[in-house]
Amino acid sequence: MITFLQLDVWKKGCSFMRVSSNTLLILSLFTVLNADTVDADLAGFDDTPVIEVEKETTEDVMDGFDDAVDSTDDTSSASDEMMSGFEDEVPGAVEEEKTDLIPGLTGKITEQIAFSWNNDEPHDNFTSVKSSLLLDYDHKFENGVRVKVNAKAYYDAIYSMKGREKFTSQELDELESEVELFDAYVEGKITDNFDYKVGRQVVVWGRSDTIRVTDILNPLDNRRPGMTDIEDLRLPVTMAKFDYFIGDWRITPIAVLEQRFSKNPPYGGDFNPVHVPAPSNEEYHDVTYALSIGAEYSGWDINFYAAQTRDDAGYIDLTDTDKRVQHDKVKMVGTALNILSGSWLFKTEVAYFDGLKYTTTGDDEFSRTDALVGVEYNGIADTLMSYDIVSRQIHDYDGRLLAEFNPLDKHHYQHAFRVSSDFLNATLTANYLISLYGEKLDEGGFQRAWLKYELADGINANVGVVDYIGGSVLFDAFKDNDMVFADISYNF
């Protein structure tokens, strides 16, 4: 009898207990570190991927857990009668229910500083004192339809602190402040094996975490190269994406409804060596198309890609009086294969592009083949290491391409090595990434080392150093921009 009394008191007492939490955030971080110098190609700072994979497996896994013990048996009823009167509120006890102002709304506040030792004025010493706010709304309705919207705003106080008159209007427009809508989409099921996702979104092709080969559908934010992983660099694009599942295969047709291009360092910025304002992009309002077909099996997966998209890099038509950057349509076909063997993951990507144009070659069109091989190893506890190398070959090469602002050889190579290790029960993560260009690793690049630490629930700190390495016309222009950076963020 005592056992039943104890059990029922515990069960009924639990209904009165709720946890409420108020979190105070003190944002402060001071860093003064030193570093050498290095950077990478403005169109290839593929630091690390963002991967979005969504599977509804919870209901299947939990099948059978609905068969709970029947609470209406005689013993329970008797116990309820004996416990009558114990449900009166205990003096001083307050039952609180957590209520969100807007259910499904979360966010992140970030304060970041960056310090450069060797850069020239006005970009020397402290180069950024940025405050950022990210708001994210995610809601799934009872009918399975999901709505996700997020937006980001930031303000960099360094320009007011140093005097706005020292900077170009283009740099102020691009880097002083910004408010932008990022993801904004609706997704759901048409049938059991036919899904849709419509709106601004990121679609990741390929497997490499550092170098982009088949991953061409989303442009990048390269305005501060080398400081951020690729998962935070991809810019969402409005698309209509459909997934049709047949056995182990997935067929994904995509209509790209918005034509966006990568954001590059502005004129006057510390990463733009050009001494004249950059031309603006030509605007396009057409629809382009892409298709992905892939399958996942035990130990390996394969994907095939095809797309007709507008070339992100673009070219300038020297006969055009407006001198806008043109982004003609190019065709791409490619594939990606991944094989898992024990602690090793072997990956390869190949992409063939046709219809490329360059500023120095007029109306002539070129094709290019990009091929990547890579390996990942996780056989060391809490540690992941990877190495990727890509070769980009321009077919029917023309010597005039050496006159491009960033000279183009017939063969172009990029290497990337990454290591990441967790410590202190995964509250501290140490990371290192180096990306170098050239067959002999002698054509510039960058390296970055950083630590991420979970200070408390929802509060994270990040501190690191970026070293930009010279070796080519482009990288020599900002090899002295090496910097230390630190940020602290609060998730709510």
Q: What labels describe this entry?
A:
492 residues; mainly beta; 18-stranded antiparallel barrel; two-stranded antiparallel sheet; 9% helix
Q: What's the shape? A: globular
Low-confidence stretches: 1-99
Helix content: under 10%
Report the strand count: 20
Distance between the termini: 46 Å
Major sheet: 18 strands, antiparallel, barrel
Strand-residue proportion: 35-45%
Total DSSP helices: 6
Rg value: 27 Å
Structural class: mainly beta
What is the H/E order?
Answer: HHHEEEHHEEEEEEEEEEEEEEEEHE
Mean pLDDT: 84
Explain the overall architecture.
This protein has about 500 residues and is mostly beta strands. The protein has six helices and 20 strands. The strands form two sheets. It has an 18-stranded antiparallel beta barrel. Strands 10-11 form a two-stranded antiparallel ribbon. Strand 18 and strand 19 form a beta hairpin. The radius of gyration is 27 Å and the shape is globular. It starts with a helix and ends with a strand. The N terminus is likely disordered.
SSE arrangement:
Elements: H1 2-14, H2 58-61, H3 74-82, E1 105-116, E2 125-140, E3 146-156, H4 158-162, H5 169-176, E4 177-191, E5 194-201, E6 237-246, E7 249-256, E8 288-297, E9 300-310, E10 315-316, E11 325-326, E12 329-341, E13 344-356, E14 366-377, E15 383-394, E16 411-423, E17 428-437, E18 445-456, E19 459-469, H6 473-476, E20 483-491
Antiparallel strand pairs: 1-2, 1-20, 2-3, 3-4, 4-5, 5-6, 6-7, 7-8, 8-9, 9-12, 10-11, 12-13, 13-14, 14-15, 15-16, 16-17, 17-18, 18-19, 19-20
